[in-house]
Amino acid sequence: MTERPIRVFSEIGKLKKVVLHRPGKELENLVPDFLPRLLFDDIPFLEDAQKEHDAFADALRENGVEVLYLERLVADAIDAADVKEQFVDEWLAETGVQSDAMLKALKDHLLAIPDTFDMVLKTMEGFRKTEMPDVSGTSLSDKYETDYPFIVDPMPNLYFTRDPFATMAHGVTLNHMYSETRNRETLYGKYIFDHHPEYGNGAVDRFYNREEATRIEGGDELVLSKDVLAVGISQRTDARSIEKLANRLFKETGFKRILAFLIGENRKFMHLDTVFTMVDYDKFTIHPEIEGGLKVWDLTPNEDGTVNIVEREDQLDVILQDALGVEKVHLIRCGGGDPVAAAREQWNDGSNTLTIAPGVVVVYDRNTVTNKVLEEYGLKLIKLRGSELVRGRGGPRCMSMPLYREDI
Ligand SMILES: NC(=O)NCCC[C@H](N)C(=O)O
């Protein structure tokens, strides 16, 4: 049997292949009045954000990881299946543009871009009003004018490739996102998994679809082992989505348990991976602020195919020891447990680490208190500058989607 293109059975197995998105001109379409709606807290300086991101990609390559770019995968998928016009039509249908004349002008503009790669980048960047001619249509929507400076919004969160789709076993969840701005991002995943020569046409199992009504985002989906997932019930992921996922995974894969972590609905920690990541066989980062209110449910398959759901009364370390079959689990507290350092460093993604091999972890250099504690636990840190990247509220795990990890 041929090797499946996706293989992810842990959070910590040696990372061999990953998807990133190099931040592009979409960041130059962030303006102060619309930051909250686009889920940003500040405006990064693109040139420096790209340098920081290139350093991230280089660090991964130096450690034996093949880096694939989302924008290249999408362009190759579109070209391979010769579906440029279909892609543009689907993209347009999700822009919210109502004027027929403007829809036609946008379509003509995109299809006139000779290189599909550049066309894909343009769909990510968005369109300012100033860059399109006035269209003189006849319908009411053609004549109607607002002060809004964009015809089509940018998609500034694309460099957080962790969220719109998530890999596990030999497949993906193609997610239905919490916000309109991020839901548009999932179209790129759809084209990759429908049409890419290596990742499309059924080569990758599909455990969730973007058309589903309930929400789930990749930052909430953690593959703890070949048997166990942890999934956050959060601002971004509904409990119902986790039940659906459990039903499918228990039937279609070897996963035997999902731990559903209730972390509450909060901008500061919108996904489970902003407060909890796995860094070694027996070590996890954790933000102390979630520990008090954390509830964990255990989802396991019943013999009749239904899902058994039990609330766990144990402490988190005991739940993890039991789920992973290790003697002692260490929970490494963000900011060393100091409430001020923890809050400051979690905000800057101190607990959002990317593990590229057991005990080898990519972090932002700025989280000095947390990093020192991680080193005291014997972890090897690869430190990145992230002053611009962090303004979008995401760290190394958020900015990466593993496609292939060696089994542990
Ligand atoms: N997994 C993650 O936590 N991703 C970070 C996403 C940040 C982005 N600005 C968002 O709010 O969706």
UniProtKB/TrEMBL annotation:
Subcellular location as annotated: Cytoplasm
A single GO molecular function term of this UniProt record: arginine deiminase activity
UniProt catalytic activity: L-arginine + H2O = L-citrulline + NH4(+)
Principal EC category: hydrolase
Associated pathway: Amino-acid degradation; L-arginine degradation via ADI pathway; carbamoyl phosphate from L-arginine: step 1/2
Protein name: Arginine deiminase
Active-site residues per Swiss-Prot or TrEMBL entry: C398 (amidino-cysteine intermediate)
HAMAP family named among the record's database cross-references: Arg_deiminase
GO BP terms, alphabetized: L-arginine deiminase pathway
EC number: 3.5.3.6
PANTHER family the UniProt entry points to: ARGININE DEIMINASE
Family the UniProt entry places it in: Belongs to the arginine deiminase family.
Lineage start: Bacteria, Bacillati, Bacillota, Bacilli, Lactobacillales
Highest taxon, organism lineage: Bacteria
Primary subcellular site in the record, as a coarse category: cytoplasm
GO cellular component: cytoplasm
Keywords: Arginine metabolism, Cytoplasm, Hydrolase
